[in-house]
Write a structure and sequence with these properties.
With 160 residues, the chain is mainly alpha-helical. Helix content is 52%, strand content 12%. The chain contains four helices and four strands. The chain starts with a helix and ends in a 5-residue tail after the last strand.
């Protein structure tokens, strides 16, 4: 068998994977496209290993490592997708551009999906008194006025 046939099939698979990564907006489909690209690389590794008649079969061994890495990538990727879906109710990549969670405006009702309905109004977090928390910690930290209107916290003993 000529090396051209698996190389062409591998190039086609890789091209389809690149198109899927660039054109799709669904996170699951992007993960599938990445897997398609990894399988194209695996096909190339095995084909060239057979064509070169490598006695150590290094191409096939490297393919096994790529398969293990791909399995770990799928597990981690699907866990991230599930966590994103639970928090944001979408897996559309256009809606996942910001890293922060969607902000709730104080006074608006927010929905609790586990309770099955609305739970009341969103509340702002109470202000934290920095001086009181430092005094409670045993005086290990000291607050100094910094330049620019902010405060800098300096640790005297070097403990965090």
């Amino acid at each position: 068998m000529h090396i051209v046939y698996p190389a062409v099939v591998s190039a086609l698979l890789f091209s389809i994977g690149v198109y899927g990564v660039l054109a799709r907006r669904n996170t699951i489909l992007v993960l599938m496209s990445v897997e398609l690209m990894l399988n194209a690389v695996n096909l190339n590794l095995v084909a060239f290993d057979v064509w070169l008649a490598d006695r150590l079969h290094s191409g096939q061994v490297l393919t096994l490592f790529v398969i293990v890495i791909a399995a770990a990538e799928v597990g981690l990727g699907l866990a991230i997708v599930l966590a994103l879906y639970r928090n944001r109710r979408t897996v559309d990549l256009d809606h996942l551009r910001a890293l922060a969670e969607p902000a709730t405006v104080a006074g608006q009702e927010q929905e609790d999906p586990e309770a099955g309905g609305r739970t009341g109004t969103a509340r702002e977090a109470p202000p934290v008194d920095v001086g009181a928390s430092q005094e409670a910690a045993g005086g290990a930290a000291q607050v100094e006025g910094g330049s620019g209107g902010g405060q800098a916290v300096r640790r005297e003993r070097g403990t965090l």
